[in-house]
């Protein structure tokens, strides 16, 4: 019985395969210098955009916190002035405020500003704890973060409109800026300044407009960040397909 003979097959070095024509020479090959250069450029651009988005988010939250704090302070000031002076008498039986004074517009702005301020403070605390903490909070929020920002923008837009519509003369803002307050200012100047109250509450209404605009801008930033994340996923998928074709 004869023993079968096997021909020797020469070993081929991996380096010889890698340098064969048509392998790794294409610009789409992950081993080509062109591909590596494009990949590095995309990574640098991605990191640059990521830093800009992070800075814009931090600045927008900081501005919103400052505006909310102003609104909380101004509304608390207006309410405290009302409750500490509403029982004062003028010329026997008169009072410095309108009968059945409407307070819900002031409470509305105070409540929404307080919630906004607290939420922004929590977000700023994450940023102060470092980039990783901020990124973790964004991942935890996920798409809920977009909904929260959108809801805030709409809520502030409605609040701005309602606060202005309620200014009919029997609310704190309307009465403070009205002719009745001017008529009795000399009688109440020792304990109440309607001019200051008018300026503070008018400033609050202007701030609500700024807050509304800032949240719509923040929503645009979130949409831009979402498009960037989608682009990264598409780019990663394309790279994986190129790798599978190259090997």
Label this structure with key terms.
mainly alpha, 8 helices, 247 residues, single chain
Structural class: mainly alpha
Quick one: how many beta strands? 0
Instruction: Please mark out the parts with pLDDT under 50 across 5 or more consecutive residues, or reply none.
Output: 8-27
Proportion of strand residues: under 5%
Radius of gyration equals 32 Å
Rough outline: rod-shaped
Mean pLDDT: 78
Main β sheet profile = none
Q: Return the string of H and E elements.
A: HHHHHHHH
Summarize the structure.
The chain is mostly helical. 75% of the residues lie in helices and 0% in strands.
Model description:
With 247 residues, the protein is mostly helical. 75% of the residues lie in helices and 0% in strands. Helix 3 (104-128) packs across helix 4 (131-141). The relative contact order is 0.13. The model is unreliable at 8-27 (pLDDT under 50).
